[in-house]
Amino acid sequence: MSRSIEAVLCYGVWAGEEIPWIDTPDDPAAWWRKQNGYKPLFDFTNALRPADVSAYFAEQKRWDDLHPMPILLHNDGDGDEECWIVAVPGTTIRTDWGSPVRLEPHSLDTSIPGDKLAAWKAFIAKYGITGTEGWFMFSYYC
Questions:
Q1: Closest CA to 8 of 70, 83, 68
Q2: What is the domain range of residue 76?
Q3: Residues 88, 94: Cα–Cα separation, whole Å
């Protein structure tokens, strides 16, 4: 099995090792749905027919599209020591080994969508997320 190095650049706040405001960092969308009162039409664990499974996920996607998360979580740790960056959606730039990305550093700050930045700022204020804010670049094996 081969491994690759992925580089990520994003704008956000480095929140450190713990994100106590979320109980499921591996599935932040599930946390977001719970926080905002999402109730599925039925319990997925009882869905036996393929049509039920499809309907369950279609309904969930419709809700997600109407209520987008104002953040994107990046784990810049190595698995043993998780470190979280709470990023503004739409600011993530990724590349992997052998695939360079050309950046215009002077245009990075103007590339942040204003509506997404405002929603992100409201979110971090609401949940008391503090830390260093700015552009972060990190890498990890994938």
A1: 83
A2: 5-141
A3: 14
